[in-house]
Amino acid sequence: MQIDDALLSKLENLSHLHVADDKREEIIAQLSEIVSFVDNLSELDTTGVSDTFSMTDNGTLTREDTPSCNTQVNENIISNSPKSGDNYFIVPKIIE
Amino acid sequence: MFEIVIGLEVHVQLNTNTKLFCSCPTSFNHKQNRNTCPTCLALPGALPVLNKEVLHKSIMFGEAVGATVNRTSYFDRKSYFYPDSPLAYQITQLYTPVVEHGVLELDFEDGTHKTIRINRAHIEADAGKNIHEGDTSKVDLNRAGTPLLEIVSEPDMRSADEAILYLKKLHSIVRYLGISDANMQEGSFRVDVNVSIRPRGDEKLYTRVEIKNINSFRFIQKAIEIEVKRQSEAWEDGVYEDEIVLETRLFDQNKQETRSMRGKEEAADYRYFPEPDLLKAIVTEEMYEKYSKIPELPDAKRDRFVKELGLTEYDANVVTSTLEMANFLEEMIAEGATAVGANKWLTGELPARLNNGMTLETSPINSKLLATLVKRIEDKTISNKAAKDVLDYLFENEVSVDEAIDKLGLKQVSDTGAIEKMVDDIMVANADKVEQYRGGKDKLFGFFVGQTMKASKGSANPQVVNEIVKAKLG
Amino acid sequence: MITLKEALKLSKDELKKFKEELRKDIEARAELNGYVEVLDHGDGVPIAIKDNIQVNGWSVTSGSQILQGYIAPYNATVIDKMSEAGLSAFGRTNMDEFAMGSTTESSFYGKTQNPHNADCVPGGSSGGSAAVVGAGLAIAALGSDTGGSIRQPASFCGIVGMKPTYGRVSRFGLGAYASSLDQIGPMTQNVEDAAILYDIISGHDEKDSTSVDMKDESVTDKLNSDRKLKIAILPKYIEDASNDVKHAYGVAIEALKKAGHTIVEKEMIDAKFDISAYYITATAEATTNLARYDGLRYGSRVEGKNLKDTYFKTRSQFGAEVQRRILLGNFVLSSGYYDAYYVKAQKVRQLIKQNYENIFKEVDLILSPVAPRTAYESGSLEDPLEMYLSDIYTISVNLAGLPAIALPIEKNADNMPVGLQLIAAPFQEQTLFDGALSLEKSL
Question: Residue C360: helix, strand or coil by DSSP?
């Protein structure tokens, strides 16, 4: 299947990144080629096959509701963060 | 002409000690970002591990609404970018929730009922908080990862009143179960309303509009009314297709209108897919046995109060509308007050005096105190009227009921001798009126009662006064 | 270079001296660019760590610009386990950005050389780890394998690289690429060292929900190269490999026969389906795993004119291959395509798993190539699809969650290493190591 410029723009939005303008055509061609390749899965008959893969039949781990917090971790992250103040992460204004 | 169709989504913040997928405390921390760890900060390499208490509380809810508890449920990633969502996806349950297909009964004042179907209740993680300051926003992730139970109704409600009844009942159930603080102002009980209209008789569902995050029942009622008006007018003006679209709106309480949240961009594509960092959530028979035990629910308590305490259904409904009141009542009865007396003071006189945000829990009047007050009325130590004064006094002064009665000098005089003497004195001082009464002026009866009460400074037992005046006047 | 087994017997003083010498050797061969940074993290036996495994206090950046400035504030579980066993993290090694690649040419830190030929790639994405062990600049290393990223570079650099059964080794602290495929594994000079390191890092971890809760049994103390095993070979599969690889395959088969193992012929599903199922699954998981890298809490932020612009500018710091996979991942998950691509891929994954199950009903191990050829020349594998197709022999192993080990078989005419891999059934690490040890001895 072919990826076109409109679809690439949509994907950029979903990915929150911009492909450099001079690379757009190349990316479109590459993605198209890859998607065309992976289309080969339609050759396989998968009727009745389960779509939930797991290594065992076990349920997910659960833990006790007991609090514990190593504040050293969050202290370090805040102190190394790109922009913080008064222990908040500071980001450009969020427009509602 | 139009029928209103309402569906409600309520996010209930569960009151576990730790977050949904990490052991960070959920208790309040005055320092922002202190209750965080690699998992809820979404650091590289961090992973989620399910809090079993969340399963427990979700199953309790399922039991309470007669729902199916899925013994196997799955988690999904819901992707979107927002600063308060550190993973840039929310872990939720789209495809197979833990609880499905429950019901909630609405009880109308006229005694009729209506069943509202609950489609599902699923587990998901809460986001952090943003505070706006000038041209920046400050992000606090203490709340990020807190467990939520999202309860989704079918669009079975047909009026704002039904919606409010549903919400109040749901709120009450959640509080009775003890699974959440369910505080609308604090954000632990968040309501999103879905409203649409259709011509009466029409069966299909038209475009629904979501109104998000209104934090009081009163505003919800208002918002629904305003939105229904907007949609009806659009229909009548022939611009329904253009103006009413599938979207999210906010309620502006100042402008009394609903406002569109999104621009005319496409609906978000959340790209849900199964969460690969978690396995399926399994509820074993053993777990189900343990986790499905629930306390007495509002309806059951109400029915028991009617049967065992002799309250009317109306009164029982009122006093069981919150667990706090119901417990308060039972404590008062344990202290020796009668059910009817306790109910009257608990649901009438006491609430009338709760001002300035004071609640049953924060008021200085505890169940023992109020019970004692009621007992003093019932054993005729004070009159009903005097009791109101005593209650006012108790709000301001930290004393016992008996100390208050003494202080105010409101001990009811029931001593017939003393009262007889007072009546005699008044009859002597007003011989002319005695003549008139005996001559047929019945209205003067009240005069003698009133004078006696005045003479006793209000402390005479009015019932006894009545009997004595009647006996003496003839 | 001293083996891990021997190094574990050294005293703290001897280790200290050893590390001093090692630092000098690393300096002397700086152009290899295997280590991004040489750092200490304790006084135990030094083990090189791939740049996507958290070590408390280290810059751990997954070879990416977007994580510059991030300092890991916690240890991955494997690092703690190593400490308990007398091993210490020593230096972080180069890798393809976010583990996406097969050549270690996409790193923020530049490319790593193949220790046997500076003009060739070491393989990827654990190219740095493979290169330093292959160059005698590390006793052993940890790498990660999502689609062959331990085994392929091990093969290109002439060392042993092992991927455990999915769930055997904790992923807590491993910067995630594809959650249902990633595993950390040992990269060592020989099979016994790999078994030793595997024993140390493996085991149930309550911080990783996908970590398997089963009785942890060590393999090293039970290693038995005398076990006679039934081993499958894949004649049709090997058709498309280079002559070097075919030759090595023949050599390995003879060695196994000589050691007394039984060889049977088996077939696998066409590998083109493996590639598709892998790239759909991996990119879908990766696109969401990498969505957290937005520069808001840690790492490198590029301020834009508003919030959205900041997101976009920051995330445009990802390299080309990472961007491609993020875009592709969002494609296969997006509405309208989800069923045809993502859901379909999961079903095909089930078929691949069943294919292996059927084979393992009759055999103990499978002998398979690792890569279609020996190490590529630097810069020659630029077409993405061509790069993806070079993974044909390794990815089905990740899709089925199987344990596998790559070991060097011989050198080709240009003195470049040729490796092959043995694959075992889920949780059969003992059999895997027994067979590998036997092959190693028999060569």
Answer: helix
Contact status, residue B408 vs residue B389, Cβ threshold 8 Å: yes
Going from the C-alpha of C403 to that of each of B221, C253, C355, C424, C425, the distances in angstroms are 60, 20, 15, 6, 7
- Expressed in angstroms, the distance from the first to the final Cα of chain B is 66
How far apart CA C308 and CA B355 sit, in angstroms, is 46
Question: What is the least distance, in Å, from the CA of A46 to any CA of chain C?
Answer: 6
CB contact under 8 A, B135 and A93: yes
Residue B210 and residue B249 in contact, taking contact as beta carbons nearer than 8 Å: yes
**Residue type at B446?**
G
Whether residues B193 and B117 share a domain: the answer is yes
Catalytic residues of C: 50, 125, 149
Contact flag C301-A82 (C-beta cutoff 8 Å): yes
For residues B46 and B141, what is the distance between their CA atoms, to the nearest angstrom? Answer: 15
Q: Are residues C45 and C140 in the same domain?
A: yes
Show Cβ contacts of residue C374 under 8 Å, excluding neighbours closer than 6 positions: C120, C156, C242, C244, C245, C412, C414, C416, C417, C418
Two structure tokens written together for A57: 């039949």
Distance from CA of C285 to the nearest CA of A (A): 13
| B271: nearest CB among C173, C174, C334 | C334
CB contact under 8 A, B50 and C342: no
Q: In chain B, whose CA is at the least distance from the CA of C342?
A: B273
Total domain count, chain B: 3
On whether the CB atoms of residues B123 and B98 are closer than 8 A, the answer is yes
Domain co-membership, B307 together with B372: yes
* Mutant choice from B40, B80, B81 vs C, greatest count of C C-beta within 10 A: B81
Asked if the C-beta of C68 comes within 8 angstroms of chain A's C-beta atoms, the answer is: no
Q: Taking CB atoms and an 8 Å cutoff, what residues of chain A touch B75? A: 60
Strand boundaries in C121-261, DSSP class E: 140-145, 160-163, 183-188, 230-233
Q: Is B15's Cβ below 8 Å from some Cβ in A?
A: no
Structure tokens at C327: 């875009």
Residues C306 and C374 placed together within one structural domain of the fold = no
pLDDT band at B357 (very low <50, low <70, confident <90, very high): confident
- What own/partner pairs with CB < 8 Å and gap ≥ 24 does C6-9 have? C7/C45, C7/C139, C8/C45, C8/C86, C8/C196
Q: Is the same domain home to C203 and C294?
A: no
Return the CATH number of the domain spanning residue range A5-41. Answer: 1.10.20
Nearest chain C Cα distance for residue B30, angstroms: 20
Domain that holds residue B314: 298-408
* Span B102-146, pLDDT tens digits: 999 998 988 899 999 999 999 999 999 999 989 899 999 999 999
Query: Which residue among C292, C322, C346 closes a domain?
Result: C346
Do B152 and B19 lie in one domain? The reply is yes
ipTM reported for the complex, 2 dp: 0.97
Determine contact: C339 vs chain B, CB below 8 A. Answer: no
Same domain? B223 vs B138: yes
- Expressed as residue numbers, the domain containing C339 is 271-346
B18–A67 CB contact, under 8 Å: yes
- Which one, of A65, A60, C344, lies nearest residue B98 by Cα? A60
- Among the partner-chain residues A23, A37, A76, the one whose CB lies closest to the CB of C71 is A76
Give the minimum alpha-carbon distance from C112 to chain A in angstroms, rounded to a whole number. Answer: 25
Last-in-domain residue among C312, C329, C346: C346
The pLDDT tens digits of the residues spanning C232-275 come to 999 998 998 999 999 999 999 999 999 999 999 999 989 999 99
Verify that B323 and B271 share a domain, yes or no. no
Residue corresponding to tokens 């009859």: B427
User: What are the structure tokens assigned to C119, written together?
Assistant: 């003009």
Residues C322 and C195 in one domain: no
Say yes or no: C213 and C286 in one domain. no
Q: Tell me what the pLDDT averaged over chain B comes to.
A: 93
Q: Tally the domains of chain C.
A: 2
Is B93 in the same domain as B19? yes
